[in-house]
Structures are given as C-alpha cells and as structure tokens.
Design goal:
The chain is of the alpha/beta class. Helix content is 34%, strand content 15%. The chain has 5 helices and 5 strands.
C-alpha cells in the first residue's frame, strides 16, 4: 500500500482545544500526508454529548464540554488551520460509541492515540475487535504528552480549572 492510500483516525471530545490536541492532530496529518501525487485522509471522531455522559466517571462533567455543535465548529476551525500545512484531506464524524468507525472501516490504516493508559488500552482493544471481525489491525501512533510551563501535562481539565491556558502557560 502506498502512503497515498493512507487513512488515519483519531477521536476525542476536543474541548477546549489545546496544544496536546494539536500534537495529536499533527501526528495524524503527518502520518496520512506524503510527498508526491495523491492524498491521504484523516478522520476525526468527535464524541457526542450522549457518549460523553455515558463514559465519564461523573456524567455531570459532560455538561462542562458544551454543546456538540459548538465543539464541532471549534474543531472544524482548528482542522482548517492544521490541514493547510499538509496534503491530506480530513473529515469530522460524530462518535456515538466508544469504538467508533475505527472498529469497522476497512479503509482505515492507522490510529493516533494519546499516551494516556486508558487511550492506549482502548487502542489495543480496538485492534482486538478488528481482528475478531476479520479486519487487519491498525498501526497505533502515539505522540508524547505536551507539557505546560510547570512540567505537568496539558489537559482540558487543567484548563477548565484555571491552572493553565491552552498553550500550557501558567495562569495566576
């Protein structure tokens, strides 16, 4: 398979979008893009509000994410900016279950996952599901955590708590 045929997938809530998310998006576009004719493709799964409520340890935390359409608009704007530097095309799909289209789409070649243990576990479970369904497993790409000025990783929770901004700068 040539790199021109590569489809890369990733997913999350992406709110608020921060430098850690940007690292995941760049990893996806770098994996899908190439030099020469043809384009790769990036599929970004955006967690639905209902799925966020089902998968949070405290379902009320899903309310902190904001409405799906607002999150989709922010992600779309971020993708416009990110995609401009690469040859790959992209699309946003709504995630309504934890496996998403990565479990069933035969055209997907690679998955970009956060280094968090939970994300890595899900990535390997997804490949188990794919093998059981007769699909080939996905390459798993994992960029390192992006850290804030204090050396701790950037996270949406830290941003919502007012500790750091989206770039990891400490807030007073």
């Amino acid at each position: 398979m040539s790199r021109a045929d590569r489809t890369v997938i990733l997913g999350g809530t992406f709110t608020p979008i921060h430098n850690g998310h940007r690292a995941l998006l760049h990893e996806a576009f770098q994996t899908a893009s190439h030099d020469g004719p043809g384009d790769g493709h990036v599929v970004v799964g955006l967690t639905s509000t209902a799925l966020a409520k089902r998968t949070r340890s405290d379902p009320s935390h899903a309310d902190l994410l904001g409405p799906f359409e607002k999150r989709r608009a922010a992600l779309d704007a971020e993708l416009d900016e990110t995609a401009a530097a690469y040859t790959a095309t992209c699309e946003i799909v709504e995630l309504t279950d934890t496996s998403g289209p990565a479990a069933t789409r035969a055209d997907v070649d690679a998955l970009v996952a956060s280094p968090e243990a939970k994300a890595q576990y899900r990535a390997h479970e997804l490949n188990r599901e794919r093998r059981e369904s007769g699909l080939r497993p996905l390459e798993i790409h994992t960029p390192p955590f992006v850290v804030a000025e204090d050396g701790e990783r950037i996270s949406s929770t830290r941003i919502r708590n007012g500790e750091i901004d989206e770039h990891g700068r400490l807030l007073d």
